[in-house]
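ARCHIVE CARD
Drawer: 12
Card no.: 0347
Subject: one protein chain, sequence and derived structure
Cross-reference: see card 0346
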Amino acid sequence: MIYLNKENMVFLKPRKVAGTSFEMALSRFALNKDIVTPISPDDEQERKNLGFCSCQNYLDQNGKQIFNNHISAADAKNKLERSIWEEAEKCAIVRNPFDVYVSLFYYHNGREADISKLSDWYLGGRGTSYLGVNHKQYFIKGEMIIDRFIRYENFEEDILELEKSVPSFKGLYDTFRNIKAKSGVRSNASYELEAVYSKHPDLKSEIGRLHSFEITNFGYTVL
């Protein structure tokens, strides 16, 4: 999560959407009183190397962490000042959920993981906790709270549109496209979603049920 006072924006970070790279790019614009949550040690070091603002203002007076990287919208609302939450633009990234689930599977199981185990992992294994992934950043009690979605598949268009809307973000896209966070843990696997999900019809159906919001509003499919 990042809160930028000057730009009046709260960025809520979903999973497997290049959120760390975007978060690092946003931190270039952070000032002393803004909230910047910690990222992985390697990415934090890279952020410092770039000369961008490091994690700050995420602890309370007793040193307890109150804001974290993937904080839910509900927790962010409860912990931010009421005026900030009500007045700030809430921003998040959205990605084809069928793609997100494959990416998450490789992230947690390794680059060489057996994709034939995809359904087993999500519908009966450790991955069950990720069903409905990213909705904690998009919704509070079923109400969608995001004001601006940046599409994973259309980063250039949507980030440049953000720059137009918020002139102080000039250069944000150029900064973002030159950052490759977490490259060491991303899968190198090449896959076609249609081929993957043809072998996992039950999981495909469950994702379709859980993620009707993304599918309906952004036209995502397995093709």
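Annotation on reverse: The beta strands are 2-4, 9-11, 35-36, 89-94, 139-140, 143-144, 148-151. The radius of gyration is 18 Å.
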